[in-house]
Amino acid sequence: MKRKMLALISVLLVLSLFTGCFSDTTSGGNKVLRIVSGGEPGSLHPSLAQGTHESIILDHIFEGLMRRDENGNLVEGVAESYAVSEDKLTYTFTIRKDAKWSNGDSVTAEDFEYAWKHALNPLTASDYSYQLYYMVGATEFNTYDLEKGSEEELKKLEDAVGVRALDERTLEVNLAQPTPFFLELCGFYTYYPIPKSVQEENPDWANDGSTHISNGPFEIVEWNHDESVVTSKNKKYYNKDKIKLDGIEFTILEDQNTEWQMYQSGELDINNNLPPDVLGTLRAENNPELIIAGDLATYFYRFNTTLQPFNNMKVRKALSMAIDREIIVEEVAQGGQIPAFGIVPFEIPDGNGDFREIGGDYFSEDLEEAKKLLAEGLAEEGMDSLNFTLLYNTQESHQKIAEAIQEMWRQLGVEITLENTEFRVKIEREHALDYEVARAGWIGDYVDPNTFLDMFTSWSTQNDTGWTNDEFDKFIEMAGNEFDANKRMEYLHEAEAILMEELPIMPIYYYTRPRCEKPYVKDTFKVINREVCLIYADIEDVEE
Amino acid sequence: MLRYILKRLGLAFLTLWVVITITFLIMHAIPGDPFAKEGKTPPAILENLRRHYNLDKPLHEQYFIYLKNLAKLDLGPSMKHKSRTVNDYIRDNFPTSAHLGLQALIMSSILGIILGIIAATRRNRLPDYLCMIIAIIGISVPGFILATVLIDVFAVRLDLLPPSGWKSVKHTILPTVALGMFTLAYVARMMRSSMLEVLGQDYIKTAKAKGLSPVKVLFKHAFRNAILPVVTVLGISAANLIVGSFIIERIFGIPGMGKYFVQSIQNRDYSVILGTTIFYSIILISMNFIVDMLYILIDPRIKIKSGTKKKTAYSEALITQNHVCQNMGGAKNES
After folding, report:
1. If we measure between CA atoms, which residue out of B265, B89, B36 comes closest to residue A127?
2. What average pLDDT does range A245-267 have in this prediction?
3. Model-level pTM?
4. What ipTM is given for this predicted complex?
């Protein structure tokens, strides 16, 4: 018997040894910056990527027509120059001669045309293809019904898309309407090029570190699924002299607490995803390693305006005025967030300054005034008290905020029930207007107020409040067709004023993106709509 | 014996089919769309995505397409991770989970049995109390708390072991302890009570009366009978451990399969839900089978008689699904 047991244990031990496989990740060189990118990337193919944890890697291994320089300014990237037609509908880009793929091939105008049409092709089923809808014919091509149509028609639609390689180095783009933020979009990952010849030869090239090809400052050395993406400096990159790092190692990890512990134990140089309680402590002690950067995102609640009494503007306004946003950001969220009295966050330029600063606050907090408004609003609806259910998706931070607001509304004389549900179920219920008040958040797609405003038009599929306003629609439409940048911004300010007057949503705060950096990490920065940029970063004192 | 094995195999396939069908139906019945985002995706793009993954077809058609692909051992593409298929997940991630799970299983079974024997033979004395304190901690402290404490003490404060990753043997120590502690405690308690029961039996008293040495009585006569219930527990635990733990893999950043059991449901990633369920069911059914075989090996009194083990495919499928659901929701010590 003993022998049998011993044999069994031996077999298990041997099996254990055989099944184990450790990867050895090295990126060659001393200056390798270590950061967590988040969960396993869904894809590192520009047409198929869809999340922030993918974008942080893509932004370091690819480069679009435009890029960010060392100061975070938008400058020419793969395009050495560009020209815009007078009607602002045609952009002509000249591709750099020395722009190369990591395999040594030249990056051509055709790679861009191919990449954008590839993302738009309905057969690709790209989540982010709508980012390319600003081009002539893009929507028609992407939304073509393959079941009812034919391949010839699809090809015709593809040819009609407003992007064309005139020669190897000239790319012409035709837009459907003036898009002031188009150059900004040219630095977004759906607009990155893909190597046409490689894609045609091996459609799975982006799925594996060994076959992955890119044209940015870094290239992938290894992609250990669910573990890490190891990159090294791309020696073929035209601007390689500006790159001081030898590589970046992106650890794939989703647990905030472990990330913090790794940072503390010196296994990470940057912590980009701090747990809220740690953040509170770091802020309280003014920790010099803590950097709080802005983010292009707003946290708000939606009212279902098709239901009584949320159809009443006074009720909505009373609820918005009765909460103390300062307490929510300081005591609950704790991440240095900024109380929101509008929907468009800070750091979006409008030509004359910051859009938010110019627009200002649209309402103020005043509990007594809120009580009066609520009583009037309820009386108009033939009601004398208000009880409702607040819907939010299951997450501790949302629950804490909901509980704080529940208490604040109690001071107003309103009792609410909290209902949490899974994210995907919440979204379905919001679309179906099957809620009373629901938590929401919005991350802007591009640095322009329009990305926070046009979702509330009557034709938007993202409105989810049941609220419509003809005047608001008119201003958004006028802004869309306006050639004069100043007038366009005026229209967008008008639109925001209407939205904030009627308050179908209740803004709570503008998000921030706090991170911690070890003192030896230098020259990182973050632009508002992107993850932290490590392209020009340096490590001054390399720890052995 | 051969007839029994063949019968069990037939039952296993039937069980699998029932599991696939029930999971397929439940999966499509729960609300939520695999491609839902915070209002961003235009309806036309959602249509493209649905078409791409055959979700625009009637349910029965989707079911037959799935079975057809399954027959070719193709578990389909992930809807969330577009660069990977379910086969990729199993190929790339299962060896890591199995490695960690086997290590945890070996640690917990050896230490658990030793602790159980010590506790039983030193009943109501200090070693018994110490062993049972360890067992109570193992059972009552949730895996995620234990993992966090282990990282804080051994990685951050003492700097002895790495806090996360899967690069060397050192990286496996903390997750193995965090993962195996519950099973260790459970085995120790079971071994103790089982041993105490056996030690009170008449044949043990007879053996002692005959003048056999205590060690011989313990290992030759008592251990063999006392281990049987523990083996049963270990069979199920083995299945639970080697397919991976959501919490432990998440906390330690281990590239295992465990997280896909849970994440696939959150993401409504249909092909991954089905693929991981099928895979887990196969492991569980195999473990049940191995346990049955071990029973015969350990206790020859257990004979195979046709008709003695009557299980229907449906009842076995329900048992299997129950375990799958437990695992998907996080093992008991992790919730």
Report:
1. B36
2. 92
3. 0.84
4. 0.76
